[in-house]
Design goal:
With 469 residues, the protein is mostly beta strands. A hairpin with a 2-residue loop joins β8 and β9. The chain has a 22-stranded parallel β-sheet that branches. The longest helix has 14 residues.
Length: 469
């Protein structure tokens, strides 16, 4: 794992956390200035112009021919030529096993093209270096996978279908022993090479994962029936995700998981998936502190949320998360929580400089929820997380069935520097719940119906308990 350690060290020592005094000494950036600065450095992959059809390598879009070897030949072709734009025309292209990218490849799925995987576990061996819920390990290969590459892209209007409902997706009920074992190996700093999963184990792979890649673009395509998380970007930089259609409703079908990524633009997305729409992470516990690195410099805009939660930070955020801008988003349907920041005293790390502006939901359970006591776990531990500088402007919901705004810090590390402006929730069960925070600034907000001009005194006030007659 020297490569992972070396990559993480490139962030600099300050990236792995700062004391409360150090954090308070930092001058938080202005939202628009921060957003524009991030966007000026994010352009995604440099797309190859050397176009070639997958049919040249023997693939057939007849929904019966196994095209895996054709994709392998296409990738070797691209590697020899320093990149290629591989076109997949209309049709159903069956793939028994993973597609492993090489640098400089643009995979274009044209309108009417479906890349359909045969999700039998034995096809996704041998194992590859990956991570699972924030712990580095070796596991079944993601269906589309790239490791230590540059300038990789998936484009077009076609669909990537994991077809994992009857195979990998059923492992959710069988994963607990492996899940706990992986976390124990994380805590005990077991060498990553000894963390071997795969055959005989039940940790589900991701649909798409790019790992330690620079220059990543995914645009236009649809994703469905993922075995686990849909799009997992792990320790990637300079990323553009645009116009993707996430319609994946199997268990733990997060739409997009950014883990220890920097320089990311997510825009114009339509979500309808079986878990978090966008989750921002940075490794779990010991692995997050020592190997993962922070997620930072992320812009999310013009997205339509539908699923479990809209935008989530955590709970695997031990490497830190900072400089996140969410703006001009709406909901396309129900979300349990709109914005959800979650950690606990197992995690450590930090979340700072989070800006939410002009974001509108319909019906939610909770609108804006921040907790340092997630799942009631780790409360006897001492790795308290720093949560600092949360700025929220023009956040609305039509109906909140639970609580509009929740802030739950800890006595040892309260939540600091929080400002709300123009929070508008006309129908709400509970307004606010704040505990273990510094003073919270709140202005121009309505939790419940807006109050108009006060009425004047009248007989209806019954001031003396009875009327004179």
């Amino acid at each position: 794992m020297m490569l992972i350690t070396s990559w993480a060290s490139a962030f600099g020592a300050s990236a792995f956390g700062a004391s409360a005094s150090e954090a308070s000494a930092l001058v938080p950036p202005d939202r628009k200035t921060l957003r524009d600065s991030i966007l000026s450095h994010v352009n995604g992959a440099e797309l190859s112009t050397a176009t070639v059809s997958i049919t040249k390598f023997g693939a057939r879009g007849d929904s019966a021919t196994d095209c895996r070897r054709a994709f392998e030949r296409a990738m070797r072709h691209a590697q020899k030529r320093g990149g290629a734009h591989i076109v997949v025309p209309r049709g159903v292209w069956l793939v028994r096993g993973p597609i492993h990218f090489v640098s400089g490849v643009t995979l274009e799925l044209q309108q009417g093209a479906t890349l359909k995987f045969v999700a039998q576990p034995e096809y996704f061996l041998p194992m590859v270096s990956t991570s699972w819920e924030g712990t580095f390990l070796w596991n079944y290969s993601p269906f589309i996978y790239g490791y230590q590459l540059h300038d990789v892209a998936i484009t077009g209007e076609g669909t990537i279908d994991g077809d994992a409902g009857d195979t990998f997706a059923t492992w959710a009920s069988r994963q607990n022993a492996d899940q706990q074992r992986s976390r124990q190996q994380n805590h005990q700093a077991v060498p990553v090479g000894e963390r071997r999963y795969g055959e005989g184990h039940f940790l589900r792979p991701q649909l798409i994962q790019f790992f330690q890649c620079q220059g990543v673009t995914i645009t236009g395509v649809g994703v469905s029936r993922s075995p686990f998380w849909c799009i997992h970007l792990l320790q990637c930089s300079n990323v553009v995700l645009r116009g993707i259609r996430c319609q994946a409703r199997l268990t733990n079908n997060d739409g997009i998981d950014l883990e220890s990524c920097r320089g990311v633009l997510i825009e114009d997305m339509a979500f309808d998936n079986g878990d978090d729409n966008i989750a921002i992470k940075s490794g779990r516990d010991n692995d997050g502190w020592t190997m993962a690195g922070p997620s930072r410099d992320i812009v999310i805009r013009r997205c339509a949320f539908k699923g479990l939660h809209g935008v989530v930070i955590g709970s695997e955020m031990s490497g830190g998360v900072e400089n996140v801008v969410v703006e001009d988003c709406t909901s396309g349907g129900y979300c349990k929580r709109g914005i959800f920041i979650k950690t606990n005293p197992d995690r450590g790390g930090y979340v700072r400089n989070v800006y939410v502006s002009n974001v509108h939901f319909g019906e939610v359970l909770d609108l804006f929820y921040v907790t340092s006591m997630y799942a009631g776990q780790g409360l006897d531990n001492r790795h308290y997380s720093l949560i600092d500088n949360l700025q929220v402007d023009n956040l609305t919901a039509r109906l909140v069935k639970g609580t509009a705004i929740v802030l739950q810090g800890t006595p040892q590390r309260p939540i600091t520097h929080v400002r709300f402006n123009q929070i508008d929730v006309p129908h709400v069960a509970k307004g606010v719940s704040f505990e273990f925070t510094d003073p919270v600034l709140m202005s121009n907000s309505f939790l419940g119906p807006k109050v108009g001009v006060p009425s004047q005194a009248s007989p209806r006030d019954n001031l003396f308990g009875c009327d004179d007659k």
